[in-house]
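Why does residue order matter? Because the sequence determines the fold. Keep that principle in mind as you read this record.
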Amino acid sequence: MAGKTPEVAHPLARAMEGHRLILGSKSPRRVALLKGLGFDFEVRPSDADESHPDDVAPDALPLILAKRKAEALTGTLAETDILITADTIVALDGQVLEKPGTIDRAKSFLRELSGKWHTVYTGYCVLMGQKEISGTVETKIHFCPLTGREIDYYLSRCEVLDKAGAYGIQDWIGLVAADDVRGSYNNVIGLPTSYIYRAIAELTDF
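Structure:
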């Protein structure tokens, strides 16, 4: 007889017993992605300094910042707590496009991304006590050519000043411009979920 599938416990439910999961970020996008993995967790933003020298390579920078965020929170953790931190950057032709800060700069970024390939890097750090699993995930994205009207329309509808590269792939701009994505889509949003899930499983000896 057809019917509703019986409820099944989360695959890591037993492994997570006695552990508190903490997300070291207040990003609503990271919060939503971690919720999507089916975990209960606490949000505990890190106040780590995110400044950096200009000569740090784009593929190295996000992991440096993710680990810095973790270090800022380690003194607040119990031995069995599991902490997740992450940092995401957008790079075009070897240059980092950070959070734009102003609409004019956001327009400039989107004009630069128009019709080109760029790379999104997310550095992540998952730690428990003295154990740490960390790394950097790379996703390549191609944008169709964008008109000035399309850029203006997007910026009038979506908040972008706090987004690396001045866009969110889950927004309207991603629907109309991102015609090729090579790698983890969730990585572009801000959290490489498959890597995070496997890291938690490994730390809890699942």
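The chain has a mean pLDDT of 95.
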